[in-house]
Amino acid sequence: MVPVKSFMIPREKFVTVPRDTNTQTAARVMRDRGIGSLFVTNDREIIGIITDTDMMRRVVAAGADATKTTVEQIMSAPIMTIEENKTILDANDLMAHSHLRHLGVTREGQLVGLISVRDLVVFLTNLPRK
User: Fold this and answer.
1) I need a labelling partner for 8 at 20 to 30 A (CA). Which of 28, 36, 109, 118 fits?
2) Any domain includes 130
3) Is 75 in contact with 40 (CB distance < 8 Å)?
4) In tens digits, what is the pLDDT along the chain, a chain of 130 residues?
5) What CATH number does the domain containing 112 carry?
6) Distance (Å, whole) CA 42 – CA 120
């Protein structure tokens, strides 16, 4: 089976925002980049992840002021991870059981990538059909 590292987005391509960024600005970054998540940083250290689902549930549905709510206030932390040599099916199982759409990918405990449900869909749609 194909390892997670074959489909992950490498850390060098992560889109990040500082922890004090307001959620309206973060939402605009996600919209403009056509992405569903951002990593939240404290200086250069990644401290959490914010997703489009977080925006809907923790800002919009909660009636929070997006110009005053920071990404740090609504981010998910710590980031749920999977080792890079685990399989795509392992990632799928972990996402399904944890009700997550994004997983950090680690190598020897260090964050090296990200895999999302979208990546799994791309993989599955490219499988040979009988």
Assistant:
1) 28
2) no
3) yes
4) 789 999 899 999 999 999 999 999 999 999 999 999 999 999 989 999 999 999 999 999 999 999 999 999 999 999 999 999 999 999 999 999 999 999 999 999 999 999 999 888 888 887 777 6
5) 3.10.580.10
6) 29
